[in-house]
């Protein structure tokens, strides 16, 4: 099943999914059953009067008394789906196998039902390429599961209901194309509740409108985006949860209690005040409140457990195994009540011998200096910026200390020009240990033997031990990079070392990436090996540090690169100088291999433009000129430059092309990928409509006038009198006719249509075709409303279904702006997200419930045809 079909399988509104999961179709002959009915799946007689009715491998039971299900229901691989309509007490005996009929839920029970399992060898599986194939589904009144059940697997949702309480034991729960557990209101896993691993393509555990409370035990939770999510409710974890591979997203509060330990990649909100437990985000664990270990806590290699001020870790009879516990200094949350903090001098003094963990970003003002007196293990988190108090060293460490950098962005800068104001000031020898680069304004002495990592200290950059670049790195014109004797610097494929200064190599530079060299490389004492590239046409990187004893070299206004020029205004120059730090400007060609090659097919040049201050990307206004070589017969007015976002969407920047210089010049306000090419649609524009050339969507309107389907049809017609009417709102009937033409007018099967779509209507064939293929649905009451305005969210749903029909794959999903407005039904599980991820909802504002004008629809069709169908 391709990825778009998986996406479409969880994109209908939750109410519709619940209705379809619980209603397996009409036409069943329902026979009342006796109280205490036993359904033996190994003795099903579809033709006999045996107390139930079977149709299309669906068994319907209507008795209101207890129901017991037993037997192997695989039915020679075809499966039996079970619908219990009235009984709210359902027992499943051990050894029972429920394999749903293809495309149907495996077990459907009424609202308020209680399911009691009697064996971990029970298996419940729904299969088939269908969004209604749930493992267990119940009505909006909720479901309680007790006893012992085995695994629950489904094509769509593992367990789907209104409310859910689990106080028994369940094996693994899997929702192949949607969620493992999907509930409209509250989810409670009770103290006695145990659930194995939970897997869902979109979500692991999801509550649409309620809270999620986990008091029991859950194995690992895996999904592509939200492992545990509420749209508006709270999340509370007081039990045991395995590794959460993706994020926890709470619409309300997120609370950890009862000494629980939670592992996640990220959270959208910090644990609420009063939380009591441990939260690991990646390799860094944080203790919240007073936590008492309930068992040994084993840390894997690289993991650190941190204890901030105000929290405590009580080991009791247990211990932390194979890892480090460190007290935390958080520069983002300096507490004046912390006895280590002196607000009068802006100095934080850490005198304990226990390891210390430093995090946070303190840049500006007077800064804070950190003095570590006794601890020999000092850990610094990624994206930490230590700016010392005025005229004091930023970080002072004791003799024999090891500074371990845990990321790629670590700056330690002294604030002052006195001789003793260093970035790193050591009472004796100190070591560094970092896979990334630690940047300091200066050091009191060089790192000792046995160090590993790259230390950039003022003009001296030192490679210690065996280091592999984790990011592009620039050596400034006044800097010297030294690879120590016995050390090695590996530049992996795809990475670049930009040298405008001097590289002194006493060890080994293993280059599989690229060395761009405007400076000097002295390898007389070492080796440069590998299959990488040495390029003398280097991008220029002005380098300067603030504060520093000497004035920095001024930034240039104009920078010339191999593939164009960048001009900085006086205001931008002044802003960058005021920010201070290491400034790096990038204009580099990007090869299409692996970078949206299908999207950019046919374009001449793709470049990445970026400005960094201390390796932090900043968006500043720039004027850019990029080259284009006109080919014979090409129209200069059709040379264009586009901004390309992460989803592959191109936005015309209205650049000006100069035939004499061969450059197209344009202004940008943010940095990203930019594409230069030739727009055949603009070149062929015949001026057929007189009301579009000043429209912001002119490029799209010209495209749909130029593009012809396989039937030699244009997608849009004018409105008469040489007009296109770009601001006229498009109706549902009009949109279906355009989509029908895009599909080359496939025939529909004669059948019942909508009451308000007459057979002689100009949109009749298109609407009936869309209805029969499932691309479009009515508005209720067997009505289509062809003359109603089409909203952008309706457009998104229809186009997503068309993509499924056509066997197309959209772009990888990505997060949407929080302020985007749309109805719940339109993106219950992904239509809006899928279209936005494909770059097809880029215009028209943030309110998707509003109508869509013809010009905006033209833009959407241009993007759809050019970037998905046309490749």
Q: What does this 3D model show about the protein?
A:
The structure is a single chain. With 871 residues, the chain is mainly beta. Helix content is 11%, strand content 35%. The strands form twelve sheets. It has a 16-stranded mixed sheet that branches. Strands 2-3-6-9-12-15-19-23-27-30-33 form an eleven-stranded mixed sheet, with helices on one face. Helix 6 packs across helix 7 and helix 8 crosses helix 9. The longest helix has 16 residues. The radius of gyration is 32 Å and the shape is flat. The chain starts with a helix and ends with a helix. The N terminus is likely disordered.
List keywords for this structure.
single chain; 871 residues; mainly beta; 16-stranded mixed beta sheet; eleven-stranded mixed beta sheet; 10 helices; 11% helix; flat
Morphology call: flat
Unreliable spans: 1-35, 530-553
Count of helical regions: 10
Strand content: 25-35%
- Which radius of gyration do the C-alpha atoms yield? 32 Å
Sheet having the most strands: 16 strands, mixed
Count of individual beta strands: 76
Average of the residue pLDDT scores: 81
Report how far the terminal alpha carbons are from each other.
21 Å
What structural category arises from helix and sheet content? mainly beta
Percent range for helical residues?
10-25%
In brief, what are we looking at here?
By secondary structure, the protein is mostly beta strands. The protein has ten helices and 76 strands. Helices cover 11% and strands 35% of the residues.
């Amino acid at each position: 099943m391709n990825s778009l079909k998986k996406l479409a399988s969880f994109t209908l509104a939750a109410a519709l999914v619940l209705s379809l999961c619980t209603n397996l179709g009409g036409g069943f002959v329902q026979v009342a059953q006796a109280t205490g009915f036993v359904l033996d799946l190994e003795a099903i007689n579809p033709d006999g009067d045996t107390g139930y009715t079977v149709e299309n491998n669906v068994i319907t039971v209507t008795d209101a008394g207890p129901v017991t299900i037993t037997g192997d229901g695989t039915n020679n691989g075809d499966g039996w789906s079970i619908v219990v309509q009235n009984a709210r007490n359902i027992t499943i005996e051990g050894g029972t196998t429920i394999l749903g009929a293809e495309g149907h839920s495996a077990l459907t029970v009424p609202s308020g039902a209680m399911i009691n399992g009697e064996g971990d060898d029970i298996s419940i599986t729904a299969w088939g390429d269908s969004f209604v194939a749930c493992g267990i589904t119940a009505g909006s009144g909720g479901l309680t599961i007790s006893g012992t059940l085995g695994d629950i697997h489904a094509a769509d949702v593992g367990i789907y209901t209104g409310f859910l309480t689990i106080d028994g034991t369940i094996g693994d729960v899997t929702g192949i194309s949607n969620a493992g557990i999907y509930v409209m209101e509250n989810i409670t896993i009770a103290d006695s509740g145990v659930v194995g691993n939970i897997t869902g393509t979109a979500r692991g555990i999801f509550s649409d409108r309620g809270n999620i409370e986990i008091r029991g035990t859950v194995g690992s939770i895996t999904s592509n985006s939200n492992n545990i999510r509420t749209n508006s409710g709270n999340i509370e974890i007081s039990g045991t949860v395995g590794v959460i591979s993706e994020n926890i997203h709470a619409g309300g509060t997120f609370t950890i209690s009862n000494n629980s330990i939670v592992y996640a990649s990220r959270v959208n909100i910090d644990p609420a005040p009063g939380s009591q437990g441990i939260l690991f985000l990646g390799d860094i664990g944080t203790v919240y409140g007073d936590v008492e270990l309930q068992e040994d806590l084993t840390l894997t290699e690289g993991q650190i457990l941190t204890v901030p001020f105000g929290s405590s870790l009580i080991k009791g009879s247990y211990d932390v195994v194979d890892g480090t516990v460190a007290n935390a200094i958080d520069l983002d949350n300096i507490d004046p009540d912390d006895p280590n903090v002196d607000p009068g001098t802006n100095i934080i003094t850490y005198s304990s011998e226990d390891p210390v963990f430093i995090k946070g970003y303190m840049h500006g003002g007077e800064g804070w200096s950190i003095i570590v007196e006794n601890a020999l293990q000092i850990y610094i988190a990624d994206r930490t910026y230590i700016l010392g108090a005025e005229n004091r060293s930023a970080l002072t460490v004791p003799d024999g200390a090891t500074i371990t950098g845990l990321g790629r962005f670590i700056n330690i800068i002294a604030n002052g020009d006195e001789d003793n104001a260093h970035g790193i000031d050591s009472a004796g020898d100190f070591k560094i240990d970092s896979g990334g680069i630690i940047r300091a304004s200066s050091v009191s002495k060089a790192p000792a033997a046995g160090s590993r990592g790259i230390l950039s200290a003022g003009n001296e950059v030192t490679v210690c031990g065996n280091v592999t670049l984790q990011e592009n790195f620039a050596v400034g014109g006044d800097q010297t990079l030294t690879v120590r004797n016995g050390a090695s610097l590996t530049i992996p494929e795809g990475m670049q070392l930009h040298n405008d200064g001097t590289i002194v190599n006493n060890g080994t530079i293993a280059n599989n990436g690229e060395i761009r060299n405007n400076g000097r490389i002295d390898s007389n004492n070492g080796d440069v090996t590998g299959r990488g590239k040495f390029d003398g046409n280097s991008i220029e990187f002005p380098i300067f540090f603030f504060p520093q004893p000497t004035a920095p070299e001024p930034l240039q206004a104009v920078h010339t690169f191999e593939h164009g020029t960048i001009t900085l205004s006086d205001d931008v120059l002044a802003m960058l100088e005021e920010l201070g730090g290491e400034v790096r400007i990038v204009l580099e060609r990007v090869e299409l291999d692996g970078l949206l090659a299908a999207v950019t097919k046919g374009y001449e040049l793709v470049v990445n433009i970026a400005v960094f201050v201390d390796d932090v990307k900043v968006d500043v206004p720039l004027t850019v000129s990029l080259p284009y070589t006109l080919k014979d017969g090409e129209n200069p007015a059709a040379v264009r430059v586009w901004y390309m976002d992460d989803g592959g969407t191109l936005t015309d920047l209205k650049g000006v092309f100069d035939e004499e210089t061969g450059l197209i010049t344009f202004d940008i306000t943010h940095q990203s990928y930019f594409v230069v090419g030739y727009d055949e649609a603009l070149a062929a524009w015949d001026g057929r409509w007189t009301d579009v050339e000043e429209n912001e969507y002119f490029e799209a309107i010209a495209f749909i006038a130029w593009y012809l389907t396989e039937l030699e049809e244009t997608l849009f017609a004018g409105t008469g009198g040489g007009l296109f009417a770009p601001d006229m709102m498009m109706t549902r009937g009009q949109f279906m006719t355009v989509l029908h033409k895009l599909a080359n007018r496939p025939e529909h099967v004669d059948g019942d249509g909508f009451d308000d779509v007459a057979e002689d209507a100009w949109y009749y064939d298109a609407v009936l075709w869309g209805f029969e293929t499932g691309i479009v649905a009515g508005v209720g009451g067997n009505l289509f409303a062809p003359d109603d305005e089409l909203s952008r969210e309706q457009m998104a749903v229809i186009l997503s279904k068309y993509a499924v029909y056509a066997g197309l794959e959209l772009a990888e999903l990505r997060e949407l702006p929080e302020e985007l407005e749309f109805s719940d039904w339109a993106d219950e599980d992904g239509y809006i997200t899928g279209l936005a991820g494909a770059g097809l909802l880029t215009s028209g504002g943030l309110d998707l419930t509003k109508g869509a004008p013809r010009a905006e629809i033209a833009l959407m069709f241009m993007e759809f045809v050019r970037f998905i169908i046309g490749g």
